[in-house]
Structures are given as structure tokens and as C-alpha cells.
Amino acid sequence: MRHFDGKCLSTRRALQPHFRKLKLDSPFQPRLDALNLQQAWYDWAGYKAPSALWDEELEYFAIRSQAAVFDISPMVKYRIEGEDAEAFLDRLTLRDVTKLKPGRVHYTAWCDDDGFVLDDGTLFRLSPTRFRLCCQERHLPWLLDSAPGFEVEIEEETETVAGLALQGPTSWSVLNAAGFAGSEKLKPFDIASFPHADGEVTISRTGFTGDLGYELFVDAKNALPLWDRLFEAGKLFGVRAIGYHALNTARIEAGLIVANADFVTAEHAIRQDRVRMPDEIGLGFMVDLKKPGYFNGRHAIENARKKGGPAHVLVGLEIEGNVPAEHAIVYHRKTREVGLVSAAIWSPLAKRNIAIVSLQRDYGKDGTADLWVEIYAMRELQYVRLMKRAKVVPRPFVKLDRRAATPPGAF
């Protein structure tokens, strides 16, 4: 086992004096600072990230009607490389990594030995022996502790690799105008590298909006030229920078989940009954029991399934009215508490009041009747209690054909 821990630490300190700076700067910070008219920031993994830049609602419509750029540099990124990288990741994650071919990405998750989810994320196979793991939480100690016996190098590259999500119906047109010839061949979850500045940019057809979209990764030193290249090319295609609030609306419409928002990761849970297995948060499809050998949590997940399956399910909910039910309690027949809403919006595209909710298993079937949501709405400086009917519905709430169209539509 080899890793770059000492080297990385000195490099990171040279790049960002952590002990002097309350929030880290993204490689795109000069552009974000110039555009952030609202001065609305939040903490993303220690970085100063925009909640909204100019107008939350219009930023959302930039995703759905033009091209939206969201800075994903704070997303935690690990380079995992070596002769045993495939075997190492196959041992750690739920899906069969041997089926992930070079030039492809898959969405995956990983558990502790008790079968509880530590995090979810995307695994990029950049070459036969080189991977990039992107996720919400930092896992370097866990990755290193899991590495003995494997010939593998592990390095956190969050600060050295900048990232942008380019999402929306005109996103490919922006790439094409920017000179990324061949990007039209990318199918969903494909990856390819393209020349940029004095290096290259890796472009994947992935995203967190349920729309046509791409994610671009580049060496941090070439980040600003990439931003400028996209925005110059996108002048005729309505390219706009957005913050997290707009992205969050789109991801809820797409039925996508966020760690420590829609479920509590195993290392963050204080109470034992708050942790969740993959089957309890809609990630059971990832669990590949056909792949040979052991992977983290395998026996625990198998035993739980033999005992009757998950105690909870994560489902979509449609609620009457137009008041979002953020963090509302769900009842059966207005009396029995059966679940909790983790994310809720009035969907601008579906024109429905929707939510992602964790329910007791028996109440999580599509079309379950007599469910009610308790919402507290502000009315003239006073909270009013509203009991609204709800029903379990399939996710995603919004499904767009253009997300998977290959080649993508041109504008």
C-alpha cells in the first residue's frame, strides 16, 4: 500500500492556509464573488459556496430552459490508483466495479461492516488502474485503513482538481461552441478528455438535476480559463451561474437524495436508530450480491433481507395544496406518526407539491391511502397548522427525455 498523505498535507497547506481562513476559496472564487449580487453563502465541506447568486427562482429556470453553471469544486474527490485499485474499490463499494469500464461512471455507495451507509457518490474509471471517487463526506482515514493488502495509491485531490456542473437543454451547445469537438458522442455516464489551456479537461455526462448535463474537471490552475471559455461560448445560449438553492429544487424534482439531508450517514448518526441500510434509502438496487467475495456490509444486508427487509423506505410523496412540507411529520389517518419529510418543494416544472420522505415500510407502497402531512405555515406573523392529504408516488417526479438523448439536442 502506498499513499501521498504527507505530500498532500504540505501541498494543501501551501494552497490554502486553513488555520488562517474561516472558509476555503474555490478555484472559481473570483468569478463567483463578482457575480454574487445577493452575497448569500453557505458552508460546503469547509468552502465558501453560493446559496444564490442573483435570483433563486430565475436560477432554477436557467437549469430548465438554458444552461446553468454550478461550482462543484468543494465536492470531496479522491484519486485511487494502482494495480489493485479495482479490487480495492470492489471490496469497499456496493456495485460490481469489475463491470465499470474505462471511460465510464457509476453511482454507488459504501457501508460499514454493519451494513449502514457511510456515503454515496460517483465513481469515475479514468483508466484500467485509475479511479476518481467523488462524494459528500471526507473518508481519507477510512480509505487508508481499508487499504492494507492492496497495491493502491490514495490521494485526496479536492483542492487540486476544480469542477463545474454544466446543466440544462443548451448545455451541449455551450460545449460545442467552446470547441469541445466530439462531446456530442458522450452517452449518459460516459467520460472523455479534451485539450484545454496547457492541459486537459475531463468531461462526464453526469449531473444532479435530472436534465441534460455535464460535469467538467480540470487542474485548479486552469480553472478560470475554463470558466471564461464556457461563458464566452455560452453568450448566445443563455449560460448563467447558479447557487445551491436552484440546484436543490432541480434535484428534488429528479428524486435524487443528499447525504445528511435525506439520510444520516453512519459516522454522523448519534442515535443507533437513525442509521440506514441501502434498502431503506432507495439504494438497494446497487447491492450486487452476485459479485464474488465479500464487500463491506454484505453479510449484514443479506441477513436483514432474510429477516423481512428494511424497517423504513425512502419514497416520493405528493401533497395537496402548494405549501412545501419541509421537515413535516407524516401521519396515517391523522393519528399514527409513520414518517418524516426530508426535502420538499412546490415543483415549478411538475406544478405539484412534492416531497422526499422516509416512511415506515408498511406505509411506503405506491398509492398508500389516508396519509396526512402536518405543515406549519406562516400567516400574518402567526403559524397556522395545516393537515394536508398526501399519497406515495414514484420518483423521479420529473423525467426529461433530453437527459438521455444521444446525440443531444442542438440550439
Automatic annotation (TrEMBL):
Gene Ontology CC: cytosol
Superkingdom as given in the UniProt entry: Bacteria
UniProt cross-references to InterPro entries, sorted A to Z: GcvT/YgfZ/DmdA, GcvT/YgfZ_C, GcvT_C, GCVT_N, TrmE/GcvT-like
Annotated substrate binding sites: E215
Gene3D superfamilies for the chain: Probable tRNA modification gtpase trme, domain 1
Residues of the Aminomethyltransferase C-terminal domain: 314-399
Residues of the GCVT N-terminal domain: 57-291
Protein name: Glycine cleavage system protein T
